[in-house]
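Input/output pair, single chain:
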Amino acid sequence: MPTLGVYSPWGGGGGPRHEPVCQYLSVDRAGHKGISSTHFVGGRGSAKTTAGEQLLHRIAYHDMPGAPLFWSEPREADLQRVFLPTLEKLVPREHWEFIGTPRPGRIRFSSGTVVDLISRNVDNPRKKVGIGPTYAGGWVDEAAEKFTINRWNDLKNSVRLDGVPYRFLDSLSTPVMNGYYELCMRPGHKVIHASSYDNPFISKDAIDDMVADMSETFVAQEIQGQWIRHEGRVWQSFSEDDYPAGNMHDAGWDEGRPWHLGLDIGQGLGHWQIWQYHGMHYPDDKRRVAVVVVEGMQRHQDIQPVLDLIKTEYGRNRIPATVAAGADVANIGATGPPPARILNEMGWPCQWPQGEMSEKSAQHQCMKRLIHDTTGARRWNISKNIRRHGPVGTWGILNCMRVDSFPEPGVRSWFIKDKKEARESNCEDPRDSMLYLAAIKHPLLWATYDRQAA
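Output:
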């Protein structure tokens, strides 16, 4: 059995003890009838992934060498970005090989154990999870991300190998109050909590850097590993006082200034908005303020007329410095090509949030920080002279700031989906066009933090 390339969580080798990892490795899975499920629920950097891979190492070489296993991540890219680098740190490279076909690949250990690598395709809910034949057990890393019980059951149903000491399906995740919470609370499921500060192998300074980027509720969830329920108004810190005391700015559209376009358009209703930055030493001033100077509504029309309007009114002399949209911008529309292709043909290449910044919870925290950060600064404003392209009435980004609220407890989406009910005055469209720009222009430190420490 190869020696792990890290300090033992038990405190051996001169290193400190990591108590939550020790608890996770000590679970008596063989004493459970049927399929056991242990959920390591912790803050960022609490060694969740490392704990799972340490158990993988023990199973592959001690508990049941040769038994087929699997490891799943939210996306195929996460297997390359998170799982494999962690494995390289843990197990000497001469004791395992990566086999890249069929994608996303598999790991073969020198003990004969083969681990299938599985992407849960969380960004494409209609795509089935590609699972192999039959396994003794597996791990679901970052299980709360876009959790669905159907995907969990697909993986669980593949854990049916006979003749092994035990069968298991474990999860490793930051806590989110969605269906994942309901799963963890089921009878017979064991939950082990860990704070980021419980990990003796990550510096307190690194955690403090992440904390500085978060609100109190997100510190509780993302660092302390606690279950947090969000209620009430979404944008409580938004103020209609004049800048800098509030979030209403005198600046309007400036044709000579770079502009940044956020899009949530498709078939039917949609919204777009333009930001411009203002600061003492733009664009290098870190205190610069983003101001929403233009917004527009798409009303039951194709995408092309909307883009034509934006180009005619605002793009004649200068292309947008940024075009941000949702991931579905790359999908073929009901009546035409993908919006991303149309934008590229216009010479306006489009970006969309990826990885953890594709999560609404991360986008929400990103926007909260811009509206009112921990230093008291307000780095996102709405122009008091905003140009509006749409009907007269109550709609748009200011209306969203005033009335947007969290869903009722038990609803599994992070934000209310109100387009069908509220029609033109919905919060869903202006919120999304805003969040896409925020995620692209101001990604969170903790969302880009190297999860190899986790």
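The chain has two domains: 12-207, 248-448. The longest strand covers residues 289-301.
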